[in-house]
Specification:
By secondary structure, the protein is of the alpha/beta class. Helices cover 25% and strands 29% of the residues. It is built from seven helices and 14 strands. The chain has helices spanning 38-42, 78-93, 152-162, 178-184, 217-222, 238-248, 271-286, and strands spanning 28-32, 47-54, 57-64, 67-73, 94-95, 100-101, 109-118, 128-136, 172-175, 189-196, 225-226, 229-235, 251-261, 266-267. A hairpin with a 2-residue loop joins strand 11 and strand 12. Helix 2 packs parallel to helix 6 (238-248). The strands form two sheets. Strands 1, 2, 3, 4, 7, 8, 9, 10, 11, 12, 13 and 14 form a twelve-stranded mixed β-sheet that branches. Strands 5-6 form a two-stranded antiparallel ribbon. Its EC number is 2.4.2.3. It holds the Pfam family PNP_UDP_1. It catalyses: uridine + phosphate = alpha-D-ribose 1-phosphate + uracil.
Length: 290
Amino acid sequence: MIKESELILNPDGSVYHLNLRPEHIANDIIFVGDQNRVEKITQFFDSIEYSTQKREFKTQTGIYKGKRISVMSTGIGPDNIDIVLNELDALVNIDLKTRQPKEKLTSLNIVRIGTSGSLQADIPVDSFVMSKFGLGLDNMLRSYLIDEVSNTALEDAFIHHTNWDIRKGRPYVIPCSEKLEKIIESDKIFKGITVTAGGFYGPQGRVLRLNIQDEELNNKMDNFDFDDNRITNLEMETAAIYGLSSLLGHNALSLNAIIANRASGTFSEDPYKAVDALITYTLNKLSSIK
């Protein structure tokens, strides 16, 4: 039996942070970072059956072309992903009344939709990037036993290439869901490695008033290659999503609309159009899942 201090429930029986009960979520879920982006997706729904919000965690569940889909905002960073993935898993794989894990487990399909800047000159603005791997620099996932789901060869290659200071913790690498990759990929979508940082400023190489440990890290990442997999973009959630989903038995995929290209110094003339195009593309692919 899982103790009350480990799995905290609200008085109405919903999970503590997400404010959700099992009937409130679909098996197919879209993650966004910004709570204001939830309705930018659900505006395309035929109907919305449930909506709730607690803190930065906003969820709407509805119907798109006959398919029941939930859209959820996770907020920023791997620490929030730890909350979201564990509580989502509890909703489908733990009996909240008996506090016992269920004998028959459910696998959720989780697709993250985000915006990002490309690190590679040949990945233009307004294109889509699929994260073949999530490379985590954040250490959150190291609180769990991850050896069975991580790619240690890619980790070792990255550590060697960047001369990584192990005092910052060992980077981890988790692949995307092969199932979702096959459903959502197309010849128009770029694939690569998405780096997940534990912060926005120093951890991503930004310098304001504080010096950073490795000023050349971003340049090293730009030219890293492992079995024809390059680092395509840098953000704050993907590797954590991949890691916890793999450990818990869920399918996860991260997609980004590229609105800036750092190598060429260009920015999308209409980033909202690029995001809407990725949203409708993803919704149509998810609606095809049986």
